[in-house]
Design brief:
- By secondary structure, this protein is an alpha+beta fold.
- It has 3 domains: 126 residues, no CATH class; 90 residues, Orthogonal Bundle (Helix Hairpins); 140 residues, Histidine kinase-like ATPase, C-terminal domain (Heat Shock Protein 90).
- Helix content is 50%, strand content 17%.
- It is built from 9 helices and 13 strands.
- A 5-stranded mixed sheet has the order 8-10-11-13-12, covered by helices on one side. A 4-stranded antiparallel sheet has the order 1-6-5-4, with helices on both faces.
- Helix 1 packs antiparallel against helix 4 and helix 4 packs parallel to helix 5.
- The protein starts with 8 loop residues before the first helix and ends in an 11-residue tail after the last strand.
- The C terminus is likely disordered.
Length: 502
């Protein structure tokens, strides 16, 4: 399995910003909701407690310390109105018209917590909905309240004991407990509406923040993309590539650094190119200057070679050595001159339509290799080539195979309507895998698997340059059953002089 595709920098920035906005909006909305709910309920609760205690003040002093049902009903009606239901209990006893007391009902079951007293206007609280914990707290002489949910509706229940004030201003429990229930549905609707507005505001703020984040990331990533594009162009060799510097922030500093680096790189590359051109020019000039004295030396070497047989053995051996090294030096100078033509761009083709099979046979025949090399040359294969340059390529490949490989050496021709391919193969040990990438390098000689070369080390480099001058290529590989295989691939119609395509 390949690596998982990762989100781009823009997507990651937007996701992180959106997540931050969501968390912030949720925290703000949640905090606003809790604060508003607490304030609204607390305000409602305080108002209900104040109203209840204010109305109960009108009952003092108690006219009947041991009230009956009618008196309890009058007490309940004192604190009840259209929005608040009430019940007054005396040691758990209440008006016969009211529901009988019993254990607290389970939340969400039973009748509503208030009902209209028959024949009256004040709603009566059902004692069954009063939580037992609240009743115990009130029975202990404390005013208390508790919010409960009845059938999905929030209800505030407040309870307080009534006290008897003696003549000495001391107080004691009267046994009367008054409970009121206030419907909190209007307040809950207000809280829900406020929460909805908070979430809507948070959603709108989130959308606005995402838009701003998108614009901000575009402003940040735009220069980054431009920097990436410029770096790719610089890597492709466009050394004059620069990017615009905008502002004075960190991105602008990166742009200035890139431009400075690119300028320095261009300057160094230009210096290296100039030095390389000077070196090539020097080699070409020296090679040309050596041609005349080498021609004279070659003539003298020929004479020495002819006379070597008649000279004493030490002198004859020296004469033959001078002759051979003169020939090697002449070949090196000629190769240097040839490679300098490719470097300077003045090498040109002189193409003709040739019979490829006959060209191969002529190359082998002239050098006396016809009996040493196997050929597989289909007839009637013609191509528009420079015969001299193809001859140089074949001579180098076959000569290397004969000198460094093992027999049999073969030349095979393959063709299709557009290209020809000439394979030169030997059956020796082949080339080391570490050597293959460097075979066509200039002055590279590999002696690990082959005998020491007497050549200049430029032959294969010149051969590949000749192939590329035709619009083709020269490659090398090891055959599965042993031996090196050089493949010369050329178009059937090479480029004509002047750069035109024939």
């Amino acid at each position: 399995m390949g690596p998982r595709p990762s989100l781009g920098l823009r997507a990651r920035l937007l996701s992180a910003f959106a997540l931050l906005c969501v968390v912030t909006a949720a925290a703000v909305a949640g905090g606003m909701y809790v604060q508003a709910r607490t304030e609204i309920l607390q305000r409602t609760q305080d108002a209900a407690v104040r109203a209840m205690t204010s109305r109960l003040q009108t009952l003092y002093p108690l006219r009947n310390p041991a009230p009956g049902p009618d008196e309890l009903g009058r007490i309940a009606r004192t604190v009840a109105d259209g929005n608040i239901s009430a019940v007054a209990l005396y040691h758990g006893t209440h008006s016969p018209a009211d529901p009988r007391p019993g254990p607290p009902a389970a939340p969400g079951s039973g009748p509503p917590p208030w009902r209209q007293r028959p024949g009256g206007n004040a709603p009566v609280l059902d004692p069954g909905v009063i939580p037992a914990e609240l009743r115990r707290t009130v029975a202990d002489g404390e005013i208390a309240w508790q919010r409960v949910v009845w059938r999905g509706e929030p209800v505030l229940i407040i309870g307080t004991p009534l006290l008897i004030i003696d003549r000495d201003r001391t107080t004691r429990m009267s046994g009367i407990e008054v409970y009121v229930a206030r419907d909190l549905s209007p307040e809950q609707r207000s809280i829900d509406a406020l929460a909805a507005r908070a979430w809507l505001t948070g959603g709108a703020a989130l959308a606005f923040a995402v838009v701003l984040a998108s614009l901000a990331t575009r402003g940040v990533l735009g220069p980054v993309r431009e920097l990436g594009r410029a770096a790719r162009l610089l890597g492709e060799g466009e050394l004059r590539t620069r990017i615009a510097v905008r502002g004075s922030d960190e991105l602008a500093e990166v742009a200035r650094t890139f431009n400075t680096t690119a300028a320095e790189l261009e300057r160094h590359v230009e210096q290296l190119r100039a030095m390389e051109a000077d070196a090539r020019r020097f080699v070409a000039d020296v090679s040309h200057e050596l041609r005349t004295p080498l021609a004279a030396l070659a003539a003298v070497a020929d004479v020495l070679d002819e006379e070597a047989a008649g000279l004493p053995e030490p002198a004859g051996r020296a004469a033959r050595l001078v002759s051979q090294e003169t020939l090697n030096l002449t070949a090196l100078v000629n190769d240097l001159i040839e490679i300098s033509r490719f470097d300077s761009g003045v090498a040109a083709l002189a193409p003709n339509e040739v019979d490829v099979a006959e060209l191969v046979r002529a190359t082998l025949r002239v050098r006396g290799w016809s009996e040493s090399v196997r050929t597989e040359l289909p007839p009637a294969v013609t191509a528009w080539l420079d015969p001299r340059r193809v001859d140089v390529i074949l001579a180098n490949l076959v000569g290397n195979a004969l000198r460094h490989g093992e027999p049999p050496v073969s030349v095979r021709l393959r063709a299709d309507p557009h290209r020809i391919a000439l394979e030169v193969r030997d059956h020796g040990p082949g080339l080391d895998e570490a050597v293959l990438p460097h075979v066509f390098d200039r002055f590279y000689k590999a002696s690990a698997a082959r005998a020491r070369s007497e050549g200049s080390g430029l032959g294969l480099a010149i051969a590949r340059e000749n192939a590329r001058l035709h619009g083709g290529d020269l490659t090398v590989a090891n055959a599965p059953d042993g031996g090196a295989v050089f493949t010369l691939s050329l178009p059937r119609r090479a480029h004509e002089p002047g750069g035109g395509s024939g």
